[in-house]
Structure formats: C-alpha cells, structure tokens
Amino acid sequence: MLDPCCGDGAIIKVISESFPFTDIFGIEKDTNRYMDASTLAQNLSGGPFAGRTIDFYRGDFLTESWTRQGGSCECCPDWPRPATILMNPPFRHAAEFIRTSLETVDPLNGNVVALLRLNFLGSSRSRADLFSREGGLRKVYVLGRRPSFNGKGTDSCEYAFFCFQKGYEGPTLLEVIPR
Question: What ranges do the domains of the chain cover?
Fold first, then answer.
C-alpha cells in the first residue's frame, strides 16, 4: 500500500492498525511532515508488526522519475509496485495525483482510493477524463459524518472516498456510509 502524499502519516497509522501484515510505503515532500511520518514508522515497526515493511521517502510523487514499467521509483528501487494507493491529496492537485497513481499502481486491477471533498465531482474540464466511462472511477463512498482533520471539529464540506480501478470501464456506483 502506498500513500503518495502521506503528510504526518495519519492514513498510514490507521491502515497499519487495521491491516497489521500489510507492507506500507509513504511519500511526503514537506520536510517537517516527513519527519513526523518517519517517527511514526519507527513506532509502528516493532512488536506485533515486526516482519513487515513500513518505509517513507521525502520527495514529490508528482515530479519524481517513476519507472512505469517496473512501478517503482528510481529513488526507491526496493519498493514494490503498489497494488493499492490510498491518499488524501491536496484538493488543488487531486486530479494530477489520481492520474499519476493510476499510471503507477499495479496494471492488473490496481486500486487508487482518494479521500476528497464531494464537490470534486463538480464540473471541471481539467478532470473530465477521470469521470468518463473509461476513467476507472468504480465507486464513490460518501461519508455520512464529516471527518475532522485537526481534532478541532469539522469544516462545512461533505467528503467521500473516490475509488478508481485500473482498467475499469463501467458505471460509477454511489454509496453513502451511514453515521
């Protein structure tokens, strides 16, 4: 599992606790947030989690030289090609993160899941390809409860998990996750 914009590692922490035998990789370009994520990786590596890989790289997923054939990055050649990419990308760059993730993920039904504001579905020429029948958007899970990203409450936006599947060419399903 790869989080290409892992921030301080919040998603990685949840995934590591829910799937204790999953190898997890994260990329973060901000130095301070990368340091926070690296500290988290050290805390999650021992005990019942020994034997799995949790690794972070400080860099920019959108500008690194990713080897699409092998799926790994020239800067992280030991990392396997991810079967799943899970992320909460910056909204402004979300479409670019999704496109790059679809190029990077395992070519045989690899999955890309992005936590985004629901209005990402709104009209935008810059992301129309993602919503076409060939765009790979398989399912949208609308969150029944607004998430808090800072522990100080929620904002006024609705959020959803946008689930893309490499090679999927069918209708997009919508499901609401109840409170």
Answer: 1-82, 83-179
CA distance linking residue 89 with residue 128, whole number of Å: 18
pLDDT tens-digit readout, 88-146: 999 999 999 999 999 888 888 799 999 999 999 886 788 888 988 778 999 999 998 87
For residue 55, count CB atoms less than 10 angstroms from its CB and return exposed for 0-12, middle for 13-18, buried for 19 or more. Answer: middle
CATH class of 83-179: alpha beta
Question: DSSP 3-state assignment of 50?
Answer: coil
Q: Per-residue pLDDT tens for 48-77? A: 556 778 888 888 999 876 554 455 566 677
Ordered strands of the 159-165 beta sheet: 54-58, 24-28, 2-3, 84-87, 111-117, 159-165, 137-143, 173-177
